[in-house]
Amino acid sequence: MTAAVQELQKDLEEVKQLLEQVTRKRVSDVLLVEQRKLEMEIADKQEQQRRREEESIETPKPATIPTGYTVKINNYGWDQSDKFVKIYITLNGVHQIPAENTQICFTERSFELLVKNLNGKTYSMTVNNLLKPISVEDSSRKIKKDTVLVMCRKKAEHKWEYLTQVEKQSKDKEKPSFDSDADPSAGLMNMLKKIYDDGDDEMKRTINKAWAESRDKQGKGEPDF
């Protein structure tokens, strides 16, 4: 066993120990993903070692392209049906490598994809905090021409507005807050007050002048800022 594999084995044992201690499901899901990642990495290292040992007793062959370089997958598309959320990852030539080189592991709220030895590289993609729970047993991956399709089976047949909780929270922060029962004039006053408070002296003079002219026409007093 190589030193690298020994270190990975130690990491794996520590993750397993942590899994026995944690009580929070989200923490457990993260540790499960890390455990499976380590197991796949150990298996990959052991397979590489086995191949090197076989090659050392065979007729020397031309050097192959190194496979240790890992590329993080950031670009993908997704859509959904009533039962599945579908994530499309484009990888040129993925259909031409052995199917077992494309590995995936799921938890209830995440998945990790690993594509090994594709054009001399390893590709990985991890998606955590899915918007809603998925069925681990009924989720899968399919390999199509130049594409990996990740099929996440919904636990409940509800429409997903976003793929992850992070995307939802980010979009929610961008949305202006509208209260349908609120007084429109109150909303306008709040907006003007904010502009007034944040503005410089010139802005404040302009708002005061406009307000005074408007209130004079209506026979009312100064703005309540």
CATH architecture of the largest domain: Sandwich
Report how far apart the termini are: 75 Å
What is the CATH top level name of the largest domain? Mainly Beta
**Domains (count):** 3
Low-confidence stretches: 62-66
- CATH fold description of the largest domain: Immunoglobulin-like
Main sheet summary: 4 strands, mixed
Overall mean pLDDT: 82
Compute the gyration radius: what is it? Answer: 28 Å
Report the order of strands and helices: HHEEEEEEEEHHH
Measured by DSSP, the beta-strand proportion falls in 15-25%
Q: Looking at the structure, what is the overall shape?
A: elongated
- Helix content bin: 40-55%
Sheet with most strands: strand arrangement: 1-6-5-4
Quick one: how many beta strands?
8
Put simply, the count of helices is 5
The assigned structural class equals: alpha+beta
Provide a descriptive summary of the structure in words:
The protein is α+β, with helices and mostly antiparallel strands. It contains 5 helices and 8 strands, in the order ααββββββββααα. The chain has helices at 3-21, 25-56, 165-174, 184-198, 201-218, and strands at 70-72, 77-80, 84-90, 102-107, 110-118, 121-127, 134-144, 147-154. Strands 1-6-5-4 form a 4-stranded mixed sheet, with helices on one face. A 4-stranded antiparallel sheet has the order 2-3-8-7, with no helix packed on it. Helix 1 (3-21) packs antiparallel against helix 2 (25-56). The radius of gyration is 28 Å and the shape is elongated. The termini are far apart.
Q: Tags for this entry?
A:
225 residues, alpha+beta, Immunoglobulin-like, 3 domains, 4-stranded mixed sheet, 8 strands
